[in-house]
Amino acid sequence: MNETFKGIIFDISGVLEFQGTVYPGAIELLDTLRAKGVHIRILTNSTLKSRLSWAAKLVQMGFTVYEQEVITAGYATAQYLRQLKPRSCWVMLKGEGVEEFKDFHHDLENPEYIVVGDYRDEFTFHNMNKALKLLLKGSKLIVMIPELVDISMGDVELTVGAYGKMLEMASKVAATYIGKPNKYIFEMALNTIDAPRDKILMVGDRVNSDIAGARRADIKSILVKTGEFKESDLVGNIRPDFMVNSILEIAQLNLF
Asked: What CA dihedral angle connects 169, 171, 176 and 177, to 10 degrees?
């Protein structure tokens, strides 16, 4: 390969680590790229953690990562919401990710926007039915990620998109989705990298979010066959530019 890339965007779960275990070679790869002057970004559909807490967790794992290099679906949603200048919102979210929304006016009774993140055990009948009634009365709907299920915590579980889709279908209020593979979150990452997009790569394990999103953003991609990757993912017409069996093999592509 004679291409030289100047920026690289990594997914976290399934690429750098999976279910709390760092993949061999991941820390060393980021260090090598950083030493070469390659711009590094971390792009995750996580909503439970803030970009600050994700950076801290990755540092604890042994990575050199800075808060400003991390873009979570929660952070991207908060930035999108700021552009709208909402009167009020109900952010259905738990965990440290709530910190991204601290500057908004929160109103659970008459919000202009209902914003769906990972609400965990608060996705009760009462709260979902309340959200439905508010949407029918005129609230608008923003969903942080479109993914329906997730196994990053060790077992399969319903995730944000499943609840967002339920509310969308029941209320017939069209939702705005922010996280991968939607173009908004990719553009946010790309706008922070001082390099043309034909010199930027996306590295992910999920064809329908990481690779599809890279295609929408018109950047090249590397599919890592780890994490949540399944061979059946390659049946469709969405194909990565490069495929590797593990993150260890990325250095062997001679792309940097």
From this structure: -40
